[in-house]
């Protein structure tokens, strides 16, 4: 496939539900590479047999990323071409692959994208929330401490926030969002995208919570999108800096940060970041 001495690493997007979303270029690349690195060989094997492709598979997942990165780099350096896929969507997006993608250029291995669907952008494109600025948050940390810290840093986020969530945590996560962002914050749930029971539910965090389990079945795969805070609600960065600088003349830095946070409605972390204290 590759006439150069070093093979190319192709990062290939695969469907998030509907197999027809596999692009014809993805089919060609998967059929032509020397090797396909995938999260789950059985799952990718099924995808490949559905398109009549039979190439050697090598497992590449969260638990063997370090060793397999070296194995794959050695094979790429030896001239073999490799396609990297994950179970669904784009590799490296809340999926394995980043170590390999990062390491490849340093070894002179070209990295090429064969883009395909990703649940985050698919959900955003139909949610009806602002799309001019958004932030991908993926899965929240599971442990309470890091999760709370993450949410605290998002308290003043003005961009649309996109989260992935496992079905058994959706209800608890919506409750935490309502407490943190306010029950009337606009939000959307995109469920089972591109599949038979695809569903888009929009409303506020409160109305979506009410519909969970009835109108919104707790089944399948979920993307949760939350509108950013209204810009007018949050003091501007310049205003935060101005208030802090006045308070800091009279108060110790820590107290000035706390008071600025209280006055402006920003989190202490946000004030720290803005004023670099
Ligand atoms: N790499 C994938 C991508 O590009 O979207 C994401 C993989 S991540 C391990 C799996 C999460 O993506 C699911 O828990 C869910 O939040 C989201 N997801 C994947 N497929 C989905 C679908 N068809 N509908 C809604 N969410 C989906």
Blueprint (SSEs and pairs):
Elements: E1 9-12, H1 24-32, E2 35-38, H2 41-50, E3 57-59, H3 65-77, E4 82-84, H4 98-106, E5 111-114, H5 119-127, E6 134-139, H6 144-154, E7 160-165, H7 170-181, E8 186-191, E9 199-204, H8 205-211, E10 222-226, H9 237-250, H10 253-264, H11 268-275
Q: What structural keywords apply?
A:
Methyltransferase, Cobalt-precorrin-4 Transmethylase, Domain 2; Cobalt-precorrin-4 Transmethylase, domain 1; 17% strand; alpha/beta; 3 domains; binds S-adenosylmethionine; 277 residues; five-stranded mixed β-sheet; five-stranded parallel β-sheet
Overview in brief:
This protein has 277 residues and is α/β, with parallel strands linked by helices. The chain is 41% helix and 17% strand.
